[in-house]
């Protein structure tokens, strides 16, 4: 270059400050151009929140997916079908774009899922909680984030083609114990008798079903229909038999029938099929009604208490079921995933997403160990309960025997006759108590100025407000006329008490019933009814109430409580459950005094000494005090009578009841005598 040319070139080169400014301007122009070509990406959070909501709802149709949303939704529903209606919550913990991710840009969402497996609002260890992550990719064409869905997004550890299965594992059910820790209900061996359809030709199944039904004495037609309706390889239970010395149908008998099968197991059972059954209750498969009322805590197939103490104390006795979540391969197209898995560790097979059959070992994803139930302790004396049941074993109408220990109110026996048909006549039935109620009326009379030696009139009939009342047929004529109150109790003179209603207010009778424990709110720890005595009856209703008819009601337990209060000398509150101890009943407004109780006890002695039930004089042991009762019922077209006897012997108070009999003395008297005599042999008066 010539010197002149060099000088020209130098004159065109900008100075250093000028070059710096030009470079900065160029950078700004480039950045502006890039910004114009690449718009700012939206926040991925809304897409991640939509994913969380979709997973919780089990519906991904509203989620922007990098794939087929309908197919993903179907996969999700199939995978979790084995968890049934279990509620779940899915929360988005955070979401952030991945630093340095290549095109397309990605973000990671972290999710927390909780399944309420036990259906309880509080966490008792039955909540299955886990974290998962989901990858979101940015779709530049749509200017939107899309979720890459995979099974492990919904369930931690879940693989393609797998489903879930929830298994409930029952703990050992708590025993029901009697006094002194005696086992009343405990696990006892049984045999499930049924037909295994996998072991019999389909053409022969109906014949086998009928043969098996006849062998175990059940309805053959009904059982054959049940077998026909069951699956091709189902075991169809016919009956469960106690596996004890009394079993007459043997395993060889059962298995001699094609498909017949006897499966040994244990069930919580009482010593015998009838032992205190209405009181203790039964255990069986939960009914649809129980499942619905449980609010999710009881599932179909669970064994629960169906009646009696087993139902009342279900939660205590059952404990807490264990929960396990297993993976299982999905079944063939059109069927739910995870159904029909045999048992833990069994190989399960199914179809994967592509329709290919797969075989895999189930994997356990979650476990809550079962907690065994806690024993329930009652006050029942096993031997005395058996005596009570034997006494009324031949009763041809609903009947009951209740025995209470007055000193502490413990219910020693609560027996129901066979024709009560599972109803707890002893503790919840409501009947007119007849003349046993005269013990209550006598207390009201004593408080109203009468004494045992007070002179009273006992005509054969008396009239009040146009209604005629009479004594029972066969009332001794030598005890008519002017007699003492003591004699009126001994001979059970109705007319004395009918006429006393003119002087003794009904409120005083109701107060006396409360003092004797008859109308207290039961505190037995079990379903119970004691008695009902209105305070506002007037006229003929009041008069009829005085002799235990009218509108007064009592259960055998209630009348045994009256006798127990007299024996103790203070108001007794009976209880059946010892552990956990029930809340004590409220004290009556007017407590029974020892002096009043002693007077009543002497009045009841006359019934045995020379009154309506002198046969009780022959009972060995301490002297017996008693009161008989007969209450007519029905419309009068038939001669129907409730029959009662209450008695005291030492530290034992008893009520015997037969729904339909001749009279308290003739029907109930012999039963009471038999019970008290046999109770002596098992220590009933200690």
UniProtKB/TrEMBL annotation:
Q: Localized where? A: Membrane
Q: What is the top EC class of this enzyme, as a single word?
A: hydrolase
Q: Which reaction equations make up its catalytic activity?
A: a beta-lactam + H2O = a substituted beta-amino acid
Where does the Penicillin-binding protein transpeptidase domain start and stop, copy by copy? 400-662
Q: Where is this region: Disordered?
A: 332-363, 613-633
Check the record and name the Gene3D superfamilies matching this protein.
Answer: DD-peptidase/beta-lactamase superfamily, Penicillin-binding protein 2a (Domain 2)
The record's listing under InterPro entries reads: Beta-lactam/transpept (IPR050515), Beta-lactam/transpept-like (IPR012338), Beta-lactam_class-D_AS (IPR002137), PBP_dimer (IPR005311), PBP_dimer_sf (IPR036138), PCN-bd_Tpept (IPR001460)
Q: Report the principal subcellular site.
A: membrane
Q: What is its EC number?
A: 3.5.2.6
Judging by the UniProt lineage, the source's domain of life is: Bacteria
Q: Residue ranges of the Penicillin-binding protein dimerisation domain?
A: 170-330
The record's keywords, sorted A to Z, are:
Antibiotic resistance, Hydrolase, Membrane, Signal
Bias (Polar residues) occurs at 349-361
Q: Which residues cross the membrane?
A: none
> So what family is this one in?
Belongs to the class-D beta-lactamase family.
* Protein name (record): Beta-lactamase
> What is the species of this protein?
Arthrobacter ginkgonis
């Amino acid at each position: 270059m010539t010197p002149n040319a060099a000088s020209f070139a130098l004159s065109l080169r900008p100075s250093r400050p000028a070059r710096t400014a030009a470079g900065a301007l160029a950078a700004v122009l480039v950045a502006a151009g890039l910004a114009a070509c690449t718009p700012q990406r939206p926040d991925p959070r809304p897409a991640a929140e939509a994913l969380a909501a979709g997973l919780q709802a089990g519906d991904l149709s509203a989620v922007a997916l990098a794939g087929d949303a309908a197919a993903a939704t179907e996969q999700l529903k199939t995978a979790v079908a084995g968890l049934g209606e279990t509620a779940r919550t899915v929360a988005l913990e955070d979401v952030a774009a991945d630093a340095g991710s290549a095109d397309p840009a990605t973000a990671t969402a972290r999710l927390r899922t909780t399944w309420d497996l036990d259906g309880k609002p509080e966490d008792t260890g039955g909540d299955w909680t886990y974290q998962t992550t989901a990858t979101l990719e940015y779709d530049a064409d749509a200017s939107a984030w899309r979720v890459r869905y995979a099974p492990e997004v919904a369930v931690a550890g879940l693989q393609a083609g797998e489903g879930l299965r929830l298994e409930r594992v029952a703990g050992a059910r708590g025993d029901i114990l009697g006094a002194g820790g005696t086992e009343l209900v405990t696990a006892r061996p049984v045999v499930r008798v049924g037909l295994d359809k996998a072991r019999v030709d389909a053409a022969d199944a109906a014949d086998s079903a009928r043969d098996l039904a006849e062998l175990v004495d059940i309805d053959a037609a009904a059982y054959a229909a049940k077998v026909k309706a069951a699956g091709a390889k189902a075991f169809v239970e016919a009956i469960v038999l106690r596996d004890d010395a009394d079993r007459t149908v043997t395993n060889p008998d059962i298995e001699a029938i094609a498909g017949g099968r006897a499966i040994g197991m244990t069930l919580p059972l009482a010593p015998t099929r009838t032992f205190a059954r209405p009181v203790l209750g039964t255990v069986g498969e939960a009914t649809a009604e129980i499942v619905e009322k449980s609010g999710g805590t009881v599932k179909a197939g669970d064994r629960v208490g169906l009646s009696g103490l087993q139902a009342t104390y279900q939660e205590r006795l059952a404990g807490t079921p264990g929960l396990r979540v297993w993976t299982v391969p999905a079944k063939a197209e059109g069927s739910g995933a995870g159904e029909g898995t045999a048992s833990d560790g069994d190989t399960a097979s199914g179809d994967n997403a592509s329709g290919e059959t797969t075989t895999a070992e189930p994997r356990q994803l979650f476990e809550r160990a079962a907690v065994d139930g806690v024993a329930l302790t009652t006050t029942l004396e096993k031997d005395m309960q058996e005596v009570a049941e034997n006494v009324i074993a031949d009763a041809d109408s609903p009947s009951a025997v209740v025995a209470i220990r007055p000193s502490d109110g413990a219910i020693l026996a609560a027996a129901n006759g066979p024709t009560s048909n599972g109803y707890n006549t002893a503790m919840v039935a409501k009947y007119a108590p007849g003349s046993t109620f005269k013990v209550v009326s006598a207390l009201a009379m004593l408080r109203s100025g009468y004494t045992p030696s007070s002179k009273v009139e006992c005509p054969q009939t008396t009239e009040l407000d146009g209604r005629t009342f009479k004594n029972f047929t066969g009332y001794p004529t030598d005890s008519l006329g002017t007699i003492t109150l003591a004699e009126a109790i001994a001979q059970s003179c109705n007319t004395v008490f009918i006429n006393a209603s003119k002087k003794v207010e009904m409120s005083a009778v109701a107060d006396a019933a409360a003092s004797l424990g008859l109308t207290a709110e039961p505190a037995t720890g079990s379903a119970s009814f004691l008695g009902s005595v209105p305070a506002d009856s007037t006229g003929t209703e009041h008069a009829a109430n005085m002799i235990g008819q009218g509108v007064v009601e009592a259960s055998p337990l209630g009348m045994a409580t009256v006798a127990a209060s007299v024996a103790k000398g203070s108001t007794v509150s009976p209880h059946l459950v010892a552990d956990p101890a029930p809340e004590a009943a409220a004290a009556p407004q007017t407590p029974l005094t020892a002096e009043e109780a002693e007077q009543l006890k002497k009045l009841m002695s006359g019934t045995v000494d020379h009154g309506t039930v002198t046969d009780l004089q022959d009972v060995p042991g301490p002297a017996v005090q008693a009161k008989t009762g007969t209450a007519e019922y029905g419309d009068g077209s038939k001669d129907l009578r409730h029959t009662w006897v209450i008695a005291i012997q030492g530290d034992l108070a008893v009520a015997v009841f037969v729904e339909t009999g001749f009279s308290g003395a003739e029907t109930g008297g012999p039963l009471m005598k038999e019970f008290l005599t046999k109770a002596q042999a098992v220590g009933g008066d200690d």
